[in-house]
Amino acid sequence: MIQLAYYPGCSLHASSQLYDIQCKLVFDRLGIELREIEDWNCCGAIAASKTSDFLALALPARNLGIVDAMGLSEIVIPCSSCYSRTLVAQKTLSSDPLLMNSINESLTHKMGGSIKVSNILEVFARAAGTGILVEKAFKKLTGLRPACYYGCLLTRFPCDVDINDDVENPQTMEMLCEVLSAVPIDWNYKTDCCGASGAFTDAEQSQLLMSRIVQDAVARDANCIVTPCPLCQFNVDVYQDKARKKYGVGKKLPVYFITELLGLAMGIDAEVMQVNRHFVDAMGLLRELKLL
Hints:
This protein is α/β, with parallel strands linked by helices and 292 residues long. Helices cover 47% and strands 10% of the residues. α4 (53-70) crosses α5.
């Protein structure tokens, strides 16, 4: 069995616990063991990056040092915000040996800079490329027309980093959906921002952004939205009703994690994955399409 270091981050241990459950279930079906790094800390993606450039680098560096000590060569990070912060910190420190040495002086486990930092879509794309995903995903998700919503954090970085998709028009989720026999729509808002933590600090602007995302998906005849980002999923799921009513969006759409579609195609029970915990009903469409 393949082993990958696993960093759930704060969201998957709090507001998006169901995503953590789904990741473990789906990766296990793919023959991948997720080894959650011990004593991990917040990567500082929301708070530290806005208050301290040093902390924004030191916090991810500590996590990467623990992975080095585990003897693993790759870490998978489901949260787009955590992934971005960790990848950027690694690139920044690898380009500045003096700063990396300064941070390492205070760390029990030193960051070496050689760990591959992967987002969840990269790993699933590799599984599709090897054929294991086709083998395991035996159930066709016929009738699903997802709007693949990447959000801004998987495609926008403050420095040059190597990623395995087109930042302007990413296609990995579309490819995965097609493997599952879903039909992803073409739309305009796949990399737009949902407001993220701005839902708490500037609710009006965040709801405006969310209303545009849902409105365009509806206009393109999507019957659901799918995302790998827990912040995007939380925002568009929890605040969709408010945004719809305020800005006149006529229809609501369930917002699935990509793991939920993969899990369904693999025959994992929807309630075991806690799909029934969504704010916008996510079970009704699946029953309507006879996917449960």
